[in-house]
Amino acid sequence: MTRAHRRLAGKIVAATHNKGKLAEIRDLVEPRGIEVVSAGSLGLPEPEETGDTFVANALIKARAATEGSGMIALADDSGLCVVGLDGAPGIYSARWAKSGEFAPAMARIVRELEARGAAKPWRAYFISALALAWPDGHVETFEGRVDGELDYPPRGAAGFGYDPMFIPDGHLRTFG
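User: That's the sequence. What structure does it adopt?
Assistant: Structure tokens below.
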């Protein structure tokens, strides 16, 4: 069964308190005539991410933002999944980076891969999920995946998170 997608228009709330993420969302949707405000600027609390998938966590955030604001809400959840670590850090990617420090989290990945005797190339993939929630209960979700391998030490000054250690398939440079 094909599900019809609703058209976005007007003003939406980005279910985030992260200024960098808000800027990325604005860059993507404001050229299409959609105004974006953040959950943080509206004083909405950050819900606990208790889902067991990226889509589930994006839905938790989108539903909380739409319930708190009465507006259409857009939320995301994403992370790095390392094959040699059985998919970790996965949905816990941000939590592996205590206080937003990703250098120790990247070093941890390497330590754990080496402790397991994982042979290079270290295969990994990024997952990104988006959820849109409307005040009438309608939701739409989208999920994407980029496969690649890990390189260490990290390279590149662009991007954030685990980007400086991830090389997408078919490329020679990291996301960083």
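The first helix runs from residue 19 to 29.
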